[in-house]
Amino acid sequence: MAAHWLPGNRKMERKRLVMRFFKCFCVGSLLWMSGAGAVMAQEAELTETLPNIFCLVDRTGDGANSTFIITNEGVIVIDTRGSEQEAGQVLKAIREVTDQPVVYTINSHFHKENTSGNAVFRSGNSIIAQKRAQAMMILKAEQEQRAVTPPNLTFEKKLEIKLGQYHLKLIHPGPAHTDGDLYIYIPKWRIIITGGLVFNRIIPFLGDGYIESWIHALREMEDLDAEVIVPGHGPVAGKPIVTQMKHYLMELKRYVNDQLDDGKNLPDTMQAVKEQLKGKYGGWQHFERVDENIVRAYLEYSAQQGT
Ligand SMILES: [Zn+2]
Predict the structure, then answer these.
(1) DSSP 3-state helix, strand, coil percentages of the chain (rounded to 5)?
(2) Which of 57, 102, 193, 264 could be a cystine partner for 75, CB 3.0 to 4.6 Å?
(3) Which residues, by Cβ under 5 Å, contact ligand 1, an ion?
């Protein structure tokens, strides 16, 4: 393991604390779920993926992952989970490890499972997002008549953050999982925190997505010098999960276009393409999302064929 700013004995102590937190968190989740009408907390597992880079991985396939980075000048939080209660668990995990303040909070995109805990981190310097993610967060909150803590620092294409010994590159790849995604690349540690762009062995949510440009964004990500991939959903893994996500979208595109070329209508396309995807992707979580994925692909590519 590479050089580490914390002394070794503190690190050992910290790992014990992390394990203790994990046990507490699972118990806490069960208690919340047992209450009538209580908030359904998502079970999540905390790991120190790289020195000072902690990932809280949702284990249900429904919630989004959260990451925090502890620097010697403060903490960076990436995605705040689906409720303030769950964000409180992220903050609790941080406090098990450090007393440093949370300086930056980053939203990878506007979806509620990534942003609903923002209020817990509002005392930090900035909440950061791509500018269209900020606009969508405010719009959705207005439509649904709910409170929101929107980002107060936005950017268009790229933003670099230096805090302590960590240098993060925030990159908006164009429309992909949504119209305002960002992913985070830390070259020194060869890690990418992908936000919604990568689902690891989970059929992606495509309701706000753009298949063609999502494939392009994943190609861009494949070209980066990275070894560790923190997906938005599912367990942390290596670079093959980026390629795996790309292949799913490319196959969805190819199968749907084959049907369009044959003049097939949507119901026939859904039946045929679902069967084609089942062999390779039937074991992924949320396979039922394939239906809406096919509809989305049919709309995107029939519009392209019509132009
Ligand atoms: Zn999402």
Answers:
(1) 45, 20, 35
(2) 102
(3) 111, 196
